[in-house]
Amino acid sequence: MTDLEIPYEKDRKGHYRFFEILPGFLSWTLILLPLVLSYFSVIAAVAFILIYLLIFFIRSVGYDIRAVQGYFDMKKQLKLNWTTLVDELHFKKIFDDKDIVRPKWHFSNLKRLDTRKVETDPYDLVHIALIATYNESREILEPTIQSIIASTYDSKKIIIVIAYEARAGKSAEDRVKELKKVYKNQFRDFLIIKHPSNIPGEIIGKGSNITYAGRQIKDYAKKNSLDPKKVLITTLDADNRPDRNYFMALTYLFCVVPDPIRASFQPLPMFTNNIWDAPTFMRVVATGNNLFYIVQTQRPHLARNFSAHAQSLQALIEMDFWSVRTIVEDGHQFWRSYFKFDGDYRVYPLTIPIYQDAVLAEGYLRTMKAQFIQLRRWTYGASDIAYIVDKGFFHKNNISKIDLIEKFLRTLEGHVTWATGTLLIYFAAFIPALLNAHSLAANELPVIVSQVQQYGIIGLLASFYICLITLPPRPSRYKRHRSILMIVQWIFLPITSIVYGSLAAFDSQTRLMFKRYLSKFDVTEKAVFNRKTK
Fold it and tell me: Do 211 and 360 have their domain in common?
């Protein structure tokens, strides 16, 4: 397959439009189904709601269990001496140091190295940190660069690339030039690449920016005799701060997995940089997102690219980098890679965090709006459903159709549940009784649902606990009552899950139904806490 791009809006017709409409149609149908069934058959409505509730409850139990597993896995990974593990990969032997904790899988990986046909020595790997920025301030950008310097990996072996937008103006250019001047000697190289405005065929977005930078990196690698198979690019937003173990752990994983060229590597996004400064609703959303991605590390079969992720330069060259026609270039990169390599592609979860900002703008209302816009962009991943069907079934490929159908159905179900799940759980049980006041089954349904939800709260408490213990220490500028608010804030979970979950998803899916496409990447506004304004 050669054409990996999303069709232009004017070219989306026939089957493509059908599958753009499908997720929204299913979501609206599902959300109206309790009302329709209650009108025609109260028993059918009650049965539907109870079955849905049971499925949701079982999945919630599994979710809570994986949250605990993921947390302890993350703690173990962060305590490992990754430098020693990488050194032992290079020398292919275990050092005589009994104080070093070595997991069982490390011994297995060393044994497998002898049987591998293609091997990448960890000492030969070159890391590139590709930082995309638009109009973020120096206070946002500089800590990202400093976090890379603080890594256990030698920053002199890392190339920094700041990809910035020409449309951001001279102030943005002066900012990145000043950062290069200050920090260039800390790295192997420090490149700044300006993305020109109004390139034909591109939408305004991160994908266009980093793709332009990626093509310049390709030329740079050729000029400097760098083997693209041994160059690993991590894409970062301006506020992304890799954990000090990230680059060393990424090096290890790249060197032990089979065929790392046909793979990408997904670190754990944790929205904790400014979590103590963010407003209440945004804290609930951010910590909820933290929990979700902790759970995802325990579901490797569902792993997808999100936000910061890493991929070899060789693979990126083969697929011409990222899409320049979508605002969800990160999640879409999974499908772009999947179809490029005829299904022979996988995402490896890496339980090492990259710390990011919770949404924080100037003023509460602007912050709430910025949060909705961010979640709407995430839920716009529903646009990939039509792409999956188009590339998978209407273009020639060698992908297993069973695997393709499974991935398609999981993606479709995920987006429909994103829109409908919370609303059905909170409100569906009351609908039959409203339309059938004299029905015993209808009136008993809310009681049964509330009893089931009481058991669900037990598991929910475990998830809340994980959210709390993954928070960074409370800044000294805040008193102890701020910690109490971190617990009390969870009473707003129903509101945030509806507004920033269901409604954001319905907005995206309804837009796709009526061809009101999101054709511009709305940069999430980022503000820095100023204690003088406190």
Answer: yes
**CA–CA distances in Å: residue 5 to residues 189, 358, 370, 509:** 31, 31, 28, 21
Q: Token pair 């103006």 is at which residue?
A: 169
Q: What H or E segment, with its residue span, contains residue 350? A: strand 346-355
The token pair that represents 296 in the structure block? 């995802």
Q: Which amino acid is at 17?
A: R
CA 255, 266, 145, 292 torsion: positive or negative? negative
Q: Residue 533: pLDDT band by 50, 70, 90 thresholds?
A: very low
Question: Is-contact 323 8, C-beta < 8 A?
Answer: no
Q: Please, what's the b/e burial string for 38-62 (b: 16 or more CB within 10 A of its CB; e: otherwise)?
A: beeebeebbebbbebbeebbeebee
Task: List CB contacts of 22: < 8 A, sequence separation 6 or more.
Answer: 385, 386, 412
Q: How many CA atoms lie within 13 A of 72 on its CB side?
A: 6
The CATH number that applies at residue 347 is 3.90.550.10
Q: Is 296 contained in some domain?
A: no
Domain containing 226 equals 81-279+304-364
Please tell me the distance from the alpha carbon of residue 31 to that of residue 13, in angstroms, as a whole number.
Answer: 27
Helices (H), 398-439: 401-427, 431-435
The helix/strand/coil state of 478 is: coil
For residue 128, is pLDDT > 60?
yes
The string of DSSP letters for 190-214 reads EEEEEE-S--TT--BSHHHHHHHHH
Q: Is the dihedral of CA 15, 20, 24, 30 positive or negative?
A: positive
Is there a domain that residue 295 lies in?
no
Q: 95 with 66, same domain? A: no
Maximum Cα interatomic distance, the chain, rounded to a whole number of Å: 79
Model confidence pLDDT, tens digit, residues 94-108:
999 888 999 999 999
CB 230, CB 199: distance < 8 Å: no
CB-based contacts of 93, cutoff 8 Å, min separation 6:
110
- Rounded Cα distance, 21 and 399, in Å: 25
Residue type for position 490: W
Number of Cα atoms under 13 Å in the Cβ half of residue 144: 27
Contact call for residues 343 and 404 (beta carbons, < 8 A): yes
**Spatial separation of the C-alpha atoms in residues 428 and 52, rounded to whole Å:** 10
Report pLDDT for 532: 42
| Band (480; pLDDT cuts 50, 70, 90) | confident
Q: Return the sign of the alpha-carbon dihedral for residues 327, 329, 330, 332.
A: positive
Retrieve residue 203's tokens: 């939408």
Q: For residue 273, tell me if it sits in a domain.
A: yes
User: What's the total number of domains in the chain?
Assistant: 2
Direct distance between the N- and C-terminal alpha carbons of the chain, in angstroms, rounded to an integer: 56
d(CA 213, CA 431): 53
**Residue 19 has what pLDDT?**
98
Query: What is the rounded CA–CA span in Å between residue 119 and residue 110?
Result: 12
**476 and 534 Cβ atoms separated by less than 8 Å:** no
